[in-house]
Amino acid sequence: MTHIESSADVSAAAELGEGTRVWHLAQIREGATIGAGCNIGRGAYIGPEVELGRNCKIQNYALVYEPARLADGVFIGPAAVLTNDLFPRAVNVDGSLKDGHDWQAVGVQIGEGASVGARAVCIAPLTIGPWAMIAAGAVVNKDVPAHALVVGVPARQIGWVGKAGHRLIENGSDWVCPATGATYRETDGVLVQVDLVNDNG
Predict the structure, then answer these.
(1) How many domains does the chain fold into?
(2) Whole-angstrom Cα distance, residue 16 to residue 184?
(3) Which end of the chain is more exposed for a tag (fewer CB within 10 A), N or C?
(4) Do 56 and 101 belong to one domain?
Protein backbone atom coordinates (compact mmCIF):
# COMPACT_ATOMS: atom_id res chain seq x y z
CA MET A 1 0.00 0.00 0.00
CA THR A 2 1.26 3.48 -0.87
CA HIS A 3 2.07 5.64 2.17
CA ILE A 4 2.39 9.44 2.22
CA GLU A 5 3.18 11.29 5.45
CA SER A 6 0.87 14.19 6.20
CA SER A 7 3.76 16.69 6.14
CA ALA A 8 4.83 15.65 2.63
CA ASP A 9 3.86 17.82 -0.34
CA VAL A 10 2.81 15.52 -3.17
CA SER A 11 1.19 17.10 -6.22
CA ALA A 12 -2.16 15.67 -7.26
CA ALA A 13 -0.68 15.64 -10.77
CA ALA A 14 2.15 13.28 -9.75
CA GLU A 15 1.86 9.52 -10.24
CA LEU A 16 2.97 7.15 -7.48
CA GLY A 17 3.29 3.41 -7.92
CA GLU A 18 1.89 0.81 -5.56
CA GLY A 19 3.82 0.39 -2.33
CA THR A 20 5.80 3.64 -2.64
CA ARG A 21 6.47 5.47 0.63
CA VAL A 22 6.91 9.24 0.92
CA TRP A 23 8.27 10.50 4.24
CA HIS A 24 8.11 13.75 6.22
CA LEU A 25 8.59 17.05 4.38
CA ALA A 26 9.38 15.44 1.03
CA GLN A 27 8.11 17.25 -2.07
CA ILE A 28 7.04 15.56 -5.31
CA ARG A 29 6.13 17.99 -8.07
CA GLU A 30 3.52 17.90 -10.79
CA GLY A 31 4.01 15.40 -13.59
CA ALA A 32 6.57 13.33 -11.69
CA THR A 33 6.24 9.57 -12.14
CA ILE A 34 7.38 7.38 -9.26
CA GLY A 35 7.47 3.62 -9.84
CA ALA A 36 6.17 0.94 -7.51
CA GLY A 37 8.01 0.17 -4.30
CA CYS A 38 10.05 3.38 -4.10
CA ASN A 39 11.15 5.08 -0.88
CA ILE A 40 11.33 8.90 -0.84
CA GLY A 41 13.15 10.10 2.28
CA ARG A 42 12.56 13.04 4.58
CA GLY A 43 12.95 16.41 2.88
CA ALA A 44 13.76 14.93 -0.54
CA TYR A 45 12.75 16.89 -3.64
CA ILE A 46 11.53 15.32 -6.90
CA GLY A 47 11.08 17.88 -9.68
CA PRO A 48 8.34 18.21 -12.30
CA GLU A 49 8.26 15.44 -14.92
CA VAL A 50 11.07 13.48 -13.21
CA GLU A 51 10.77 9.74 -13.81
CA LEU A 52 11.76 7.07 -11.29
CA GLY A 53 11.59 3.36 -12.02
CA ARG A 54 10.58 0.66 -9.58
CA ASN A 55 12.24 0.15 -6.18
CA CYS A 56 14.29 3.35 -6.19
CA LYS A 57 15.53 4.76 -2.89
CA ILE A 58 15.89 8.54 -2.59
CA GLN A 59 17.48 9.31 0.76
CA ASN A 60 16.85 12.28 3.06
CA TYR A 61 17.24 15.76 1.54
CA ALA A 62 18.36 14.52 -1.86
CA LEU A 63 17.46 16.88 -4.73
CA VAL A 64 16.42 15.34 -8.05
CA TYR A 65 15.78 18.11 -10.57
CA GLU A 66 13.90 17.74 -13.81
CA PRO A 67 14.25 16.24 -16.36
CA ALA A 68 16.11 13.44 -14.52
CA ARG A 69 15.37 9.84 -15.52
CA LEU A 70 16.17 7.05 -13.06
CA ALA A 71 15.82 3.38 -13.99
CA ASP A 72 14.74 0.59 -11.63
CA GLY A 73 16.62 0.10 -8.38
CA VAL A 74 18.56 3.38 -8.33
CA PHE A 75 19.93 4.64 -4.99
CA ILE A 76 20.40 8.37 -4.35
CA GLY A 77 22.21 9.07 -1.08
CA PRO A 78 21.45 11.72 1.54
CA ALA A 79 21.78 15.32 0.32
CA ALA A 80 22.96 14.24 -3.15
CA VAL A 81 22.07 16.63 -5.98
CA LEU A 82 21.17 15.96 -9.61
CA THR A 83 21.45 19.35 -11.33
CA ASN A 84 19.70 20.61 -14.46
CA ASP A 85 21.24 23.95 -15.52
CA LEU A 86 24.35 24.30 -17.70
CA PHE A 87 24.64 28.05 -17.16
CA PRO A 88 23.17 28.80 -13.71
CA ARG A 89 22.21 32.42 -13.21
CA ALA A 90 19.47 34.03 -11.12
CA VAL A 91 19.05 36.86 -13.65
CA ASN A 92 19.19 37.49 -17.38
CA VAL A 93 21.83 39.80 -18.86
CA ASP A 94 19.36 42.71 -18.58
CA GLY A 95 19.07 42.12 -14.84
CA SER A 96 15.55 40.66 -14.96
CA LEU A 97 14.83 37.63 -12.81
CA LYS A 98 15.05 34.39 -14.78
CA ASP A 99 12.05 32.08 -14.97
CA GLY A 100 11.40 28.73 -16.61
CA HIS A 101 11.16 30.30 -20.08
CA ASP A 102 14.67 31.78 -19.91
CA TRP A 103 16.65 28.54 -19.90
CA GLN A 104 16.49 24.96 -21.08
CA ALA A 105 16.68 22.24 -18.44
CA VAL A 106 19.13 19.39 -19.02
CA GLY A 107 18.94 16.14 -17.09
CA VAL A 108 20.84 13.33 -15.44
CA GLN A 109 20.03 9.80 -16.61
CA ILE A 110 20.87 6.89 -14.32
CA GLY A 111 20.83 3.23 -15.32
CA GLU A 112 19.44 0.25 -13.43
CA GLY A 113 20.87 -0.46 -10.00
CA ALA A 114 23.33 2.45 -9.95
CA SER A 115 24.14 4.30 -6.71
CA VAL A 116 24.96 7.95 -6.01
CA GLY A 117 26.62 8.48 -2.62
CA ALA A 118 25.83 11.01 0.09
CA ARG A 119 26.39 14.67 -0.88
CA ALA A 120 27.59 13.74 -4.36
CA VAL A 121 26.76 16.22 -7.12
CA CYS A 122 25.92 15.04 -10.64
CA ILE A 123 26.21 17.89 -13.14
CA ALA A 124 23.82 17.55 -16.07
CA PRO A 125 23.75 16.64 -18.88
CA LEU A 126 25.13 13.31 -17.74
CA THR A 127 24.54 9.57 -18.06
CA ILE A 128 25.47 7.13 -15.30
CA GLY A 129 25.53 3.52 -16.47
CA PRO A 130 23.79 0.57 -14.84
CA TRP A 131 25.25 -0.65 -11.53
CA ALA A 132 27.82 2.16 -11.37
CA MET A 133 28.84 3.51 -7.96
CA ILE A 134 29.40 7.23 -7.28
CA ALA A 135 31.33 7.78 -4.05
CA ALA A 136 30.13 10.12 -1.32
CA GLY A 137 31.09 13.72 -1.99
CA ALA A 138 32.10 13.15 -5.61
CA VAL A 139 31.41 15.78 -8.28
CA VAL A 140 30.52 14.00 -11.50
CA ASN A 141 30.85 16.08 -14.68
CA LYS A 142 31.15 13.40 -17.37
CA ASP A 143 29.42 10.15 -18.27
CA VAL A 144 30.11 7.11 -16.09
CA PRO A 145 30.31 3.59 -17.60
CA ALA A 146 28.26 0.69 -16.28
CA HIS A 147 29.79 -0.88 -13.14
CA ALA A 148 32.37 1.91 -12.78
CA LEU A 149 33.47 3.08 -9.33
CA VAL A 150 34.17 6.82 -9.38
CA VAL A 151 35.46 9.11 -6.62
CA GLY A 152 36.74 12.63 -6.10
CA VAL A 153 36.42 16.18 -7.42
CA PRO A 154 36.13 16.00 -10.34
CA ALA A 155 35.13 12.33 -10.24
CA ARG A 156 37.51 9.78 -11.75
CA GLN A 157 37.21 6.03 -12.13
CA ILE A 158 39.30 3.95 -9.71
CA GLY A 159 37.83 0.49 -10.28
CA TRP A 160 34.75 -1.61 -10.93
CA VAL A 161 31.83 -2.76 -8.79
CA GLY A 162 29.49 -5.73 -9.18
CA LYS A 163 25.74 -5.82 -8.75
CA ALA A 164 26.16 -6.38 -5.01
CA GLY A 165 27.99 -3.05 -4.72
CA HIS A 166 31.35 -4.52 -3.71
CA ARG A 167 34.55 -3.48 -5.44
CA LEU A 168 35.65 -6.17 -7.88
CA ILE A 169 38.97 -7.96 -7.51
CA GLU A 170 41.15 -8.50 -10.56
CA ASN A 171 41.81 -12.16 -11.35
CA GLY A 172 43.87 -12.56 -14.52
CA SER A 173 41.76 -11.26 -17.38
CA ASP A 174 38.59 -11.25 -15.27
CA TRP A 175 37.12 -9.33 -12.34
CA VAL A 176 35.46 -11.19 -9.47
CA CYS A 177 32.91 -10.02 -6.90
CA PRO A 178 34.10 -10.97 -3.38
CA ALA A 179 30.49 -11.07 -2.13
CA THR A 180 28.76 -13.19 -4.78
CA GLY A 181 31.56 -14.82 -6.77
CA ALA A 182 30.14 -13.39 -10.00
CA THR A 183 32.77 -12.98 -12.70
CA TYR A 184 33.02 -10.00 -15.05
CA ARG A 185 35.21 -9.25 -18.05
CA GLU A 186 36.35 -5.85 -19.32
CA THR A 187 36.80 -5.15 -23.03
CA ASP A 188 37.68 -1.67 -24.30
CA GLY A 189 36.37 -0.01 -21.14
CA VAL A 190 33.11 -1.98 -21.03
CA LEU A 191 32.48 -4.46 -18.20
CA VAL A 192 30.12 -7.39 -18.77
CA GLN A 193 29.19 -10.27 -16.49
CA VAL A 194 30.80 -13.41 -17.93
CA ASP A 195 27.89 -15.80 -17.39
CA LEU A 196 25.62 -13.36 -19.23
CA VAL A 197 28.09 -13.34 -22.13
CA ASN A 198 28.07 -17.15 -22.18
CA ASP A 199 24.27 -17.28 -22.08
CA ASN A 200 24.17 -15.14 -25.20
CA GLY A 201 26.57 -17.38 -27.07
Answers:
(1) 2
(2) 35
(3) C
(4) yes
